[in-house]
Amino acid sequence: MRAKIYRFISKHGSILCALAILVAPIACEQCRVLFYEPVEPKGLDMFIKEHKNNFKENEKLL
Questions:
Q1: pLDDT tens-digit map of 23-44
Q2: Rg of the chain's alpha carbons, rounded to an integer?
Q3: Residue 16 in contact with residue 9, Cβ under 8 Å?
Q4: Domain residues for 29?
Q5: Distance between CA atoms of 11 and 4, rounded to whole angstroms?
Q6: Signed CA dihedral, 7, 12, 13, 16: sign only
Q7: What is the DSSP string of 10-30?
């Protein structure tokens, strides 16, 4: 069974990849609930100001 799957993927791998590339953008648009937040959460600016130093320290580590 494993050999059959390996042969199938080896033979049709490029077609499967092309199909995945075509279907992926369409699939995410067909979700029942799209989690989109049009407004910034309250207190976001204050959160950024308080944690600005943490962001700079993390960038130095990278």
A1: 988 887 777 666 666 778 788 8
A2: 22
A3: yes
A4: 2-61
A5: 10
A6: negative
A7: HHHHHHHHHHHHHHHHHHHHT
> Residues near 9 by Cβ (< 8 Å), separated by ≥ 6?
16
Tell me the per-residue pLDDT of 43-55, one tens digit each, with 9 for 90 and over. Answer: 888 888 887 776 6
Residue 8 φ/ψ region, left for φ over 0, alpha for ψ in the -120 to 50 degree band, beta for the rest = alpha
Unique residue bearing structure tokens 């995945």: 20
Burial of 60 (0-12, 13-18, 19+ CB in 10 A): exposed
What's the distance, Cα to Cα, between the start and end of the chain in Å? 45
Domains identified in the chain, total number: 1
Question: Mapping DSSP to helix (H, G, I), strand (E, B) and coil, where does residue 42 land?
Answer: coil
The answer to whether residues 43 and 49 touch, using CB atoms and an 8 Å cutoff, is no
